[in-house]
Amino acid sequence: MSRYLPHPILSVALVLMWMVLTRFSLGNLILGGGIATLAGWVVSRLRPKRVVVGSWSAIFKLAGIVGYDILKSNIEVAKLIIAGTRRSDRIAGFLHIHLRLTDRNALALLSIIITSTPGTAWVEYDPEEGLLLLHILDLRESQDWQVIIRDRYESLLMEIFE
């Protein structure tokens, strides 16, 4: 069974989601089942390493911080747009930050956090040097952003994943 359906929970969840998003018919059920089975095979080929959580409390703390930061950033970006401030009043730019993170899962989660926060975008990461390139809509102090990334996110991610 596991050879034909390596990730049964994922496959069932995908079929159910497919059926919710499309009209129920035998054809959609067969197509959804085929796509779900193929997705299970693809995921099994990736062979992701098993994640061992170092601190469950850090997960909840990180979730709270990220939720707060996303809400705060949404409000700040909305103010910038609604106020119609002159383009010269805000400075958008790129910023390099050295990261201590090495775990792939932690880096993936950090990229999701940064990109989910309005006004910031993960542009590039150099794994050899541990150098992250960010684009920031309202770049006031580059030091502030380094503190935000390192102290608010990276330290908790290291506690969780490393």
UniProtKB/TrEMBL annotation:
**Gene Ontology cellular component?**
plasma membrane
Extract the coiled-coil ranges from the record. Answer: none
Q: Where in the cell is it found?
A: Cell membrane
- Signal sequence annotation: none
Ranges annotated as spanning the membrane: 12-39
Q: What is its main location?
A: membrane
Pfam families noted in UniProt: MNHE
Task: Give GO terms: molecular function aspect only.
Answer: monoatomic cation transmembrane transporter activity
Assigned keywords, A-Z: Cell membrane, Membrane, Transmembrane, Transmembrane helix
* Record-linked InterPro entries: Cation_antiport_E (IPR002758)
Q: How does it sit in the membrane?
A: Multi-pass membrane protein
The text of the family note is: Belongs to the CPA3 antiporters (TC 2.A.63) subunit E family.
Listed name of the protein: Multicomponent K+:H+ antiporter, subunit E
